[in-house]
């Protein structure tokens, strides 16, 4: 994640600046073109690498194939190229308005991300700062930061991106300096922006239709199971494709009946992790009725562990709670270690 944010904070502005200088000079130096190409490839490579590494690190998700990673690189390469060229064209003519446009787009995307209620950091203000940084990525390309279905949100984003690219390129075409860029060269640049965005969307459809790790449209769907450690676990239900995998929600409500049966649209929905056979006691008085549910004791203070440990612990909690809900009629409760009571540590037999 840090490398991804670093790449977009450094390479993306540098790419737009280099392209804008090339357009104003109407000349491309070899070293300048090589530097711009390296910046573009690094952006696409970082996005695809992040997706593959994150999927490989999660036991509840299917790993991404190298074919899927290559198609993802091409998808982001062409969409970011069209976006950067459109930015550079508009910035070469309207420098002030370009800055206003970038700030406005960033504010809108940041509020959109905050409205989605991401859960990556440990505090509210850290989460807001993280959303502000991710808003910079949304200036250039799509990046899913929330678990679950992303089809609607991604469609809205690409419709907005297509409209902005068309408006920026059209304004440059009508207000460009005709003595620097001829009509034929201007038409070629407009075609390059259009074809690059179309190719990016084409590779995006190729990825989701044929190479998505959780299953394809034309083939059997597979979903990452929450019981990855158990080789004899029951296979999971199908779910719609999602662009990226983020940390699971830290709020853990009781699973509903629809979620247990694997309703389409919930990627994390699975059939029961453990099948508990109901047993009838020999006499009604042989076992007392349970008045409260099981307690999951966590040998850590709440909100006192790093974000990556929280990501790992929360996945274990989801597995444990899902298993306990099928073996207990009551909702499991979580109990964290109190910082003020040091002897409470001795009461825990195991940790998550």
From TrEMBL:
GO terms for cellular component: plasma membrane. Belongs to the XK family. Signal peptide: none annotated. Residues 245-266 are annotated as: Disordered. This is XK-related protein. GO terms for biological process: apoptotic process involved in development; engulfment of apoptotic cell; phosphatidylserine exposure on apoptotic cell surface. Keywords: Cell membrane, Membrane, Transmembrane, Transmembrane helix. Its main location: membrane. It comes from Phrynocephalus forsythii. It is found in: Cell membrane; Membrane. It is a multi-pass membrane protein. Residues 257-266 have a biased composition (Basic and acidic residues). The chain crosses the membrane at residues 69-90, 96-116, 128-145, 187-208. It comes from the Eukaryota.
